[in-house]
Amino acid sequence: MGSSTQAPETRATDASARPVPEQVDSADSIENQALRGGMVKSLLAVLVNVGVLTALLVYFGWVRTDRMAMMLGIDEAILGMTVDDYVRRSVRSVVLLPIFAAAGGLAWVAFDQWWQRRRIRYGNDDRAVVFVARWMWVFAILVFLLGTAFWLIGLAFTYIAAPLICAAGLLLLLYGFGLRSHLPGAVPLAPLTDGILRGSVAVLVAVGLFWSATNYATVEGTELAREFPGRISTLPGVEIDSASPLDIVAPGVEVSCVGEGEGTRFHYRGLRLLESTGGNYFLISDEWTPTYGVVVMLPMNADGMRFTFVRDVAGIRAEDFPPCES
Question: Tens of pLDDT along the chain (326 residues)?
C-alpha cells in the first residue's frame, strides 16, 4: 500500500526534471540563429577587408606604373596592363600598410580592454577612467596635428605616414566621444547624429588609407625611376630574329643579316626586356638614358619573328651574323 503511493510521486518528479522537447528545440534554434548571424557578420567583414585590400593593390600598382611610364617617356595606358598585372607588381609593398593598421588596431583593443576593466572594477568615478574619457579628444587632436606636421616635413617616411596618422587621430576622436558617454551626467549623441559621425569618420579614414597608399606608390615609383639607369644591365637581354626589317633605331641596338634576297633574316641585339603585358613585349636598349631613350613595343606572336632571351653575365657575345649591307 505504501509502495503504491510513492511510485506516482517519483514518476511525477522525474517528468518535471526532464526539459520539454519544444523548449529544447526553441533554445537550440535561437542559439543556431545567433551562431549563423555571427558567422555571416564575420564573413562579410572578411569580404569587405579583402575588397578594400584588392582595391589598394590595384591602385598602388597603377600609381607606381604610371610614375615609371612618365619617367620612360610613355603613357601608362600604352602598356595595357590588367588588374592581375597591377596586383602582382604591388602585393609585396602594399601589404605593409594593412600590417601597420592592424598593429595599431591591436594596441587600441588592448587599451580599451584596460579602460573597460578599470571602469567595471572601480566605477565611472575613478580618476583614471574620468581623465581618459574627458581628455581623449585632446589627445586625438594632437595626433591629427602630428600627422599634419609630418606632411609639412616632406621626407619620404613622413610623406607616407602623414595620412595614416591623421586617420588615426580621427578614429581616436570618435573613440573619445564614446568614452565620454560613460561619464556621470553625460548626454549621449542622438542615434542619427551618431550614425552620421561614424559614417563620416569611416569615409575619411578610407580616404586616408588610399592617400597613404598613393604616397607610398609615388615614393616607390620615384625610387625605381631614380635607380632604373643602373638596373638596365640586370634586365633580361633580348635578341630578335625577323624575316623583315624592323627599323629599330635606338642607342646601343645592333642589326646584322644572314642570307640573301628574299631569304634574308634580320637579327637585332642590344635590347632589354622592360615589360611583358597585354600580348606585347616592351623593350629598351642597352644604352638607354633619361636624356634619350627609346621604348620598343613588339607583339609576342608576330609572324616571321623570333625572340631569344639571353643572360650574358660575362659579356660574351657570339658574332654569328654578318653586318647588313647598306
Answer: 444 444 444 444 444 444 444 443 454 455 445 444 544 554 455 445 667 677 777 888 888 788 777 777 777 777 777 777 788 777 766 677 778 778 888 888 888 888 888 888 887 777 888 888 888 888 999 999 999 999 888 788 888 889 989 998 988 888 888 887 777 776 676 777 777 888 888 888 888 888 887 888 788 877 877 888 888 888 888 888 888 888 888 888 888 887 776 778 888 888 998 888 878 888 988 888 888 878 888 888 888 888 888 876 555 565 556 666 65
Rounded to 5 degrees, φ, ψ at 123 are: 90, 170
* Grid coordinates given for 116: 573597460
CA separation for the pair 302, 281 (Å, rounded): 11
Q: Where are the domains of the chain?
A: 35-230, 235-310
CA 16 to chain centre: 60
Which H or E run includes 99? helix 96-122
CA distance 117 to 202: 27
3-state secondary structure of 48: helix
Residue whose C-alpha is closest to residue 297's, from 78, 83, 86 = 78
Decide: helix, strand or coil at residue 205. Answer: helix
All residues at 6 or more sequence positions from 91 whose CB lies less than 8 Å from its CB, including other chains? 57
Minimal CA–CA distance to 324: which of 244, 250, 237?
A: 244
Quick one: which of 326, 314, 313 has its CA closest to 257?
A: 326
Q: Is 261 left (phi over 0), alpha (psi -120 to 50) or beta?
A: left
DSSP 3-state of 269 = strand
295 has which bridge partners?
284
